[in-house]
Amino acid sequence: xxxxxxxxxxxxxxxxxxxxxxxxxxxxxxxxxxxxxxxxxxxxxxxxxxxxxxxxxxxxxxxxxxxxxxxxxxxxxxxxxxxxxxxxxxxxxxxxxxxxxxxxxxxxxxxxxxxxxxxxxxxxxxxxxxxxxxxxxxxxxxxxxxxxxxxxxxxxxxxxxxxxxxxxxxxxxxxxxxxxxxxxxxxxxxxxxxxxxxxxxxxxxxxxxxxxxxxxxxxxxxxxxxxxxxxxxxxxxxxxxxxxxxxxxxxxxxxxxxxxxxxxxxxxxxxxxxxxxxxxxxxxxxxxxxxxxxxxxxxxxxxxxxxxxxxxxxxxxxxxxxxxxxxxxxxxxxxxxxxxxxxxxxxxxxxxxxxxxxxxxxxxxxxxxxxxxxxxxxxxxx
Length: 382
Prior knowledge:
Elements: E1 6-8, E2 11-14, E3 21-26, E4 29-34, E5 44-48, E6 52-53, H1 56-61, E7 65-66, E8 71-72, E9 85-87, E10 90-92, E11 95-98, E12 100-101, E13 109-112, E14 117-120, H2 127-130, E15 133-134, E16 147-148, E17 161-162, E18 175-181, E19 185-191, H3 194-200, E20 213-217, H4 218-223, E21 226-227, H5 237-241, H6 243-249, E22 260-267, E23 281-289, E24 296-297, H7 300-310, E25 317-322, H8 325-332, E26 346-351, E27 356-357, E28 361-362, E29 365-368, H9 370-374
């Protein structure tokens, strides 16, 4: 899904506890709207999702402005950030903004901005025109460090989209796994063949005794960057959490012919708002080999073999079996399987036999717990 797309409403549902509002279904997201707006299935709207930061002029137009205080009525320190919320007991995610339909072209709509209007069609991202930005939290120093640029070809650009945005990517009855979506920070370690180390010239900053490993976060990996193996980075949670695993991974060096990447979640006190106990930890959730654009992601059996060889624990698997929306709902909410006694973020859905989807790409998605979405004081560091 684009950041702020023009999209068609799939369905309208009545609100069970209110007469003046109803629910617009956007894929599998629910957005509470005023019944007076008169929305119908198929109507096109601008959908403003969670974590969007809305400018003042648009907050006023949406009726989300407090004139007395001179601020918006949303979340965040500036009261202008879209968050999940409950309306009379029903979860609402995102805001629907009305558009004007074109009199001649039924596929065309007009979006009103601060100083004019633009034409758009379903799927177009209008965030720039409306002045809507995505909230990016400030990153604490423990998650920062000095970096270098080995290049995008040898780092993994990894993200997991919400299944609510891509419901057509799921196939009823397909064998899948639901694994715990831990609320830590994505951490990847890539071990490179000797020829790549030489050709990329990373020997000065690579990790491991042969300087043949890259360590990076989600944001760094997307840009082709990695942490330097220098003393100034020794206190980084990424460095500390993966130390033992990197020692074991060194044994793979003589057997690989292309980059091998181990992906997991670093978690613990101070990493995010859900601590998972008192110790810093790392749990593996994926592995792949190859170069960007041609990565081979390993299935659960091969992944388990590598985890055992590295002596690392994998994220907990709650379910393996045929996919259904009912089993997904059953496993999305609840406590973490780590024994820490707090909520889980949700689950990750992965087909046992990997495949691609025309919009999503590699099929892997997350289903997020309602309690996680509604928690107070949450952090979302990448």
